C-alpha cells in the first residue's frame, strides 16, 4: 500500500451480516448497515489503515450484544473466551486503536461516522492517545459558539469543599450544531471539491468554525479544548445535512478538512469487495473462533490483492498495464513449432 503513498488515515467502521435463527454467535436484532434497517444480524467492528487509494483492515472483532455476553449457556456453546465481555462498539474500536498504537502502526488521523463520533469518551480516548480525529456527529450534538465556553466554578461560600466544576445557567447555554449551522451567514458557505467521481467531480457547500464540545462539561473541572466543527449544506437542501468534529491543527485548510471527512468512502468500497468477492459475508458457522478465523483469511486475501494492485500504475485501470515482457533466449523455439527442413 505504501508504495503508492503514505498512510493517510485510520478508519473505524462496522459492518453487518444478516443472519437467521438465534444460535450463531453474536446474532441479535440490531441495526444492519447492509440492509439499512434493524433486523436479525451480527455486526463486526473493524479498524483499517488507508492510503489515498486503498485500505486494509488490521483489526476486526465481532460485536457481542449484552444479551449474549450475559448468557453463560450460549457463550459455552459458541466457544466465547472468558476474557471477552460486553463492550459498546466505540469501546471495542478504542481497544483496537490502543493495540495499533502499541504495535507502532504508522499513526494517522482517525476517521469514523456519527455512531462513534457522538461518544465523547471515544473522542477523549483518541486525544489521550495523541491521535487526531475527524468524526461525524449528530445534528443535536451540543457545542459552545465560537469564543464562548462554560462558566467558571461558582464562588466558594466558605462552607464545605470549594466548587471546582464548570457551570452554566439558563442565560448561558450551549447550542446544537444544527442551531449553530443555521446561524452561519450564507457568504461563509464555500463550495469545495474533494475528489473525482465516476461521472463528475464530487462537490458540495461547507462551512467551519472553531468550537468547544459541551457534552456534560458541567461535570468537568476544565472546558474541552477548541476543535473544528465542519458543516455540509448541499445545494437544494433546506438545511445542513452532515456535521463533523475534528482535532486537526488550526492551520488545516478547508479543502484538506473536507477531504479527510469524506475519505471514509474508501472503506465502503473495500468492504463490498471483502463481502462479495472474497466471501467475508459467506460464513455459516456458529462459533466465535470459526468466525474470526474465516474473517482473518478473507482479510489476508484482500491484503494480497491490495499488494498486487500496488504494483501497477493508476493507468492500468484503463487497460494500460505497461508490463515488460522478458527477452526470449537465443535459439528459442516454441514446442508447437515445426522443425525446419534441411535441403
Structural class: alpha+beta
The sequence of SSEs as H and E is EEEEHHHEHHEEEHEEEEHHH
Helix content: 25-40%
Write down the overall mean pLDDT: 89
**Beta-strand content bin:** 15-25%
Radius of gyration: 26 Å
Q: Biggest sheet, in brief?
A: 12 strands, mixed
Distance N terminus to C terminus?
A: 59 Å
The total strand number stands at 12
Structural description of this entry:
- This protein is α+β, with helices and mostly antiparallel strands.
- The protein contains nine helices and twelve strands.
- Strands 1, 2, 3, 4, 5, 6, 7, 8, 9, 10, 11 and 12 form a twelve-stranded mixed β-sheet that branches.
- A hairpin with a 4-residue loop joins β2 and β3.
- α3 runs parallel beside α5 (120-128).
- The model has no long low-confidence stretch (mean pLDDT 89).
Q: Nutshell version of this structure?
A:
With 343 residues, this protein is of the alpha+beta class.
Attribute tags:
single chain, about 350 residues, alpha+beta, 2 domains
SSE arrangement:
Elements (H helix, E strand, L loop, with lengths): L8 E10 L9 E5 L4 E14 L4 E8 L3 H4 L2 H7 L10 H14 L7 E3 L1 H4 L2 H9 L4 E5 L4 E3 L30 E2 H6 L7 E7 L4 E13 L13 E6 L9 E5 L7 H9 L2 H12 L11 H22 L34
Parallel strand pairs: 1-5, 5-6
Antiparallel strand pairs: 1-3, 2-3, 3-4, 6-12, 7-8, 7-10, 9-10, 10-11, 11-12
Helix pairs in contact: 3-5
Amino acid at each position: 500500500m505504501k508504495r503508492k503513498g503514505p498512510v493517510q488515515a485510520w478508519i473505524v467502521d462496522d459492518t453487518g451480516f444478516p443472519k437467521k435463527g438465534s444460535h450463531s454467535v453474536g446474532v441479535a436484532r440490531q441495526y444492519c448497515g447492509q440492509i439499512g434497517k434493524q433486523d436479525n444480524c451480527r455486526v463486526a467492528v473493524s479498524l483499517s489503515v488507508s492510503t489515498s487509494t486503498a485500505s486494509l483492515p488490521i483489526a476486526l472483532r465481532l460485536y457481542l450484544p449484552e444479551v449474549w455476553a450475559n448468557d453463560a449457556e450460549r457463550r459455552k456453546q459458541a466457544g466465547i473466551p472468558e476474557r471477552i465481555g460486553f463492550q459498546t462498539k466505540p469501546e471495542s474500536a478504542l481497544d483496537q486503536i490502543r493495540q495499533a498504537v502499541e504495535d507502532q502502526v504508522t499513526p494517522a488521523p482517525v476517521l469514523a461516522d456519527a455512531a462513534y463520533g457522538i461518544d465523547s469518551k471515544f473522542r477523549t480516548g483518541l486525544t489521550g492517545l495523541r491521535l487526531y480525529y475527524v468524526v461525524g456527529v449528530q445534528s443535536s450534538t451540543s457545542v459552545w459558539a465560537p469564543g464562548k465556553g462554560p462558566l467558571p466554578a461558582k464562588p466558594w461560600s466558605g462552607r464545605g469543599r470549594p466548587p471546582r466544576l464548570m457551570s452554566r445557567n439558563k442565560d448561558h447555554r450551549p447550542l446544537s450544531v444544527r442551531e449553530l449551522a443555521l446561524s452561519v451567514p450564507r457568504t461563509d458557505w464555500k463550495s469545495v471539491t474533494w475528489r473525482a467521481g465516476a461521472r463528475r467531480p464530487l462537490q458540495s457547500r461547507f462551512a467551519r468554525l472553531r468550537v468547544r464540545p459541551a457534552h456534560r462539561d458541567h461535570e468537568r473541572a476544565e472546558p474541552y479544548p477548541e476543535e473544528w466543527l465542519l458543516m455540509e449544506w448541499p445545494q437544494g437542501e433546506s438545511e445542513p445535512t452532515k456535521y463533523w468534529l475534528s482535532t486537526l491543527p488550526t492551520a488545516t485548510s478547508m479543502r484538506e478538512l473536507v477531504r479527510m471527512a469524506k475519505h471514509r468512502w474508501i472503506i465502503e468500497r473495500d468492504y463490498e469487495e471483502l463481502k462479495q468477492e472474497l466471501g467475508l459475508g459467506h460464513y455459516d458457522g456458529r462459533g466465535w473462533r470459526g468466525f474470526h478465523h474465516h474473517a482473518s483469511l478473507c482479510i489476508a486475501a484482500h491484503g494480497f490483492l491490495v499488494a498486487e494492485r500496488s504494483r501497477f500504475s493508476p493507468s492500468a485501470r484503463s487497460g494500460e498495464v505497461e508490463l515488460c515482457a522478458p527477452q526470449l533466449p537465443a535459439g528459442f523455439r516454441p514446442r508447437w513449432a515445426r522443425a525446419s527442413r534441411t535441403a
